[in-house]
Amino acid sequence: MMLGVWALLFLWGLVTPCEGLLETVGTLARIDKDELSKAIQNSLVGGPILQNVLGTVTSVNQGLVGSKGLLGGGGLLGSGGIFSVVEELSGLKIEELTLPEVSLKLLPGLGVQVNLLTKVGLRGSGPLGGLLQLAAEVNVSSRVALGMSSRGTPILILKRCSTLLGHISLFSGLLPAPLFTVLEQMLCKVLPDLLCPVVDSMLGVMNELLGVTLSLVPLRALGSVEFTLATLPLISNQYIELNINSIVKSATGDIIDFPKPHVPVKVPPKQDHTSQVIVPLYLFSTVFGVLQTNGALDIDITPELVPKNIPLTTTYLAVLVPEALGKLPPGQQLLLSLRVKEAPTVTLQKKKATVSIPATIHVLSSVPQGTPTALFQLDEVLTLNAQLAPSATKLRLSLSLERLSGKVASSSAHIFDASLLEEWLNKVLRAVYVPKLNVNVEVGIPLPKILNVNFSTSVLDIIENAVVLTVAS
């Protein structure tokens, strides 16, 4: 198992992001290094990570000052050392750890270099008695690899950690110059064991955040979309790239396998200090496919649903297409049964998104307490403009009917020109069907959660076969 993990990490180290055509249908996320630094900094704030470091550095007869430690026995503070009394520096504790200043460097093909610059406050008893207070600047340097967990989530793995001791300041007490050397050696020996766990705990928090990328995003009662990594994470000088696959599941948890058309996306360049999510056409088509298979695009339109200024009677129909009524008397109410038997077609072009819904519309006459009578059937294509707006978790959709085109598929009387009904049908659908559609498409197009990046304020750009969300870091 471990061999497989290291093999994945090795392979990851050989590849870096590239510009050009995105051949897969996955969602592409690019996390700017500024966002990664911000997330690391936030993981250290308000939690127990730094508090866990506070505690004893030295104690009598154990560890560094024990009989076999650096400062005990024949060591610097033992017999023959600078001082013969081990207890002179006993009880030295870390009582304060300044919130580290994070600096981060992405290393293509290698990993991530993370530096934490902090100040350690120490307190104990001085060699001449009395209180001893001092502070030491410390740079914690770590090398972190980026891989993929067995669950398909990105994961940060600590590969190497070391500390570099900087300036030591004495605030109270007396510490002879020779003992400064002893103290420096002691801190150089003990601080990696004390501070490197901070990095490990920090990565644990980060991995929890990255793990949310693999999540089930509900599509209300219709089902859900599960995001997983499609490939190993890639890295450049400025950002980490995640190719995220979307798995659609029904409300019962079954995978819905929609066709994945080959629609390459010309990936736009990313500006420095920005993060991006590139949402593919496939995800739009998938959501509308789920809506269609669940019957959320179907509707029965009755006179009660239509505004009074839009007639829904055989009397009005006789004015437009009298041949369609045959011997049916006027004055009867109409019922429109709209059914969508095929998945809609979504088109993403430069600056414009459209949805084409192939619909079958059965027009029937109805009388109170009677069985509706079929008059004719229309095969229509509804072309709708889609307005897109980003939120923190999804792309919001708002549809408006652009045009309607169709033909008469069958008639109980005579075949007629369907274009004669176009204006009337447009009014009916705009008044009743489009509002119902907009309620159902409130499920939106789900977005993967990437660290704590909030795309609600992002700049949205519709390109060929994809939508690009860009947010400043």
CATH architecture level-2 label of the largest domain: Super Roll
Mean pLDDT: 83
Helix content: 10-25%
Q: What pattern of helices and strands is seen along the backbone?
A: HEEHEEEEEEHEEEEEEHEHEEEEEHEEE
- Please give the CATH class of the largest domain: Alpha Beta
GO molecular function, one term: lipid binding
Keywords: Disulfide bond, Glycoprotein, Secreted, Signal
Family: Belongs to the BPI/LBP/Plunc superfamily. BPI/LBP family.
InterPro entries: Bactericidal_perm-incr_a/b_dom (IPR017943), BPI_fold-BPI/LBP (IPR051660), Lipid-bd_serum_glycop_C (IPR001124), Lipid-bd_serum_glycop_N (IPR017942)
Describe the 3D structure:
The protein has helices at residues 2-12, 33-43, 177-211, 281-293, 314-320, 422-440, and strands at 20-22, 27-32, 55-56, 93-97, 101-107, 111-125, 131-148, 154-172, 216-218, 223-229, 234-235, 239-250, 265-267, 274-280, 299-301, 333-339, 345-349, 352-366, 373-390, 394-411, 445-446, 459-463, 466-472. It has 473 residues and is of the alpha+beta class.
Describe the secondary structure blueprint for this structure.
Elements: H1 2-12, E1 20-22, E2 27-32, H2 33-43, E3 55-56, E4 93-97, E5 101-107, E6 111-125, E7 131-148, E8 154-172, H3 177-211, E9 216-218, E10 223-229, E11 234-235, E12 239-250, E13 265-267, E14 274-280, H4 281-293, E15 299-301, H5 314-320, E16 333-339, E17 345-349, E18 352-366, E19 373-390, E20 394-411, H6 422-440, E21 445-446, E22 459-463, E23 466-472
Antiparallel strand pairs: 1-13, 2-12, 2-14, 3-4, 4-6, 5-6, 6-7, 7-8, 9-10, 10-12, 11-12, 14-23, 15-16, 16-18, 17-18, 18-19, 19-20, 20-21, 22-23
